Amino acid sequence: MSLLSVKSMSATIAGQLVVEDVSFEIPETGITALLGRNGVGKTSTLRGLIGLIDRKGEISFGGKDISGMPTNKIIQLGIGYVPEDREVFASLSVQENLKLAARKGLDSRWDFIEKLFPDIFGRLHQRAGTLSGGQQQMVSLARALVNENQLLLVDEPTKGLAPKIVQETAAALQLAAEKTPMLLVEQNLTVVKQLAEDAIVLEGGRVVFQGKAKELLSDEKLTAKYLGVGGGDE
Question: At CA 31, angle to CA 225 and CA 199, rounded to 5?
């Protein structure tokens, strides 16, 4: 049974069509990678799912139609969103960033977050804007994980990070996915191979592949056709 079902979703920004006709299913467990070349609509798809941009089509979450819901109502149903480029509140402390995101206070998930991101727990009173890029990414992920969500939408979590931090981020995502299924936009194919069970590929605003990630990434012809690279490290 799918947790999220999307049928014929299109989305626009300032009247321009950015997602043309997207249909896919997200299972109730594991990590599904949303892949494709730059500019094909991956970020716009995530933003459309939660109503951050205008969209049309059928979107069902946990059997409930969320197609016409505003973003705040969708988030309250249990969808966490980690945006591209982190978007932390730079002038607020790490702890204040987490408190703002928590729907029911921090207590219930505090130990779990500390286990995933011990580094930022030594910096709870430090302003988020003074953290390194990797530390800011940890704060961004932690904000989504302070709540007991049923689904996480995670956009480019390793973008611009040093290799060591990429591996730390991937390990945190793997642990998080043991509790919460995830739709992950990620360009680093090594990370995708490590984490994803399933994959969806967009091209020209449409889905051109949906299946097992291993099937896609082990086929050099498919990866060259859809992603512009050979299988393996990117």
Answer: 20
Beta bridge partners of 82: 154
Residue 150 has which token pair?
A: 């049923």
Q: Which domains does the chain have, with CATH numbers?
A: 2-227 (3.40.50.300)
Among 222, 215, 210, which Cα is nearest to 24's?
Answer: 210
Among residues of the chain, what percentage have pLDDT more than 70?
96
128-176 residue pLDDT tens: 999 998 899 999 999 988 888 999 999 999 988 899 999 999 999 999 9
Amino acid (1-letter code) at residue 112:
F
Which residue, 37, 24, 21, is CA-closest to 223?
37
**Per-residue confidence (pLDDT) for residue 230, from 0 to 100:** 53
Distance CA 198, CA 135 (A): 28
Q: Quickly count helices (H) and strands (E) in the chain.
A: 10, 10
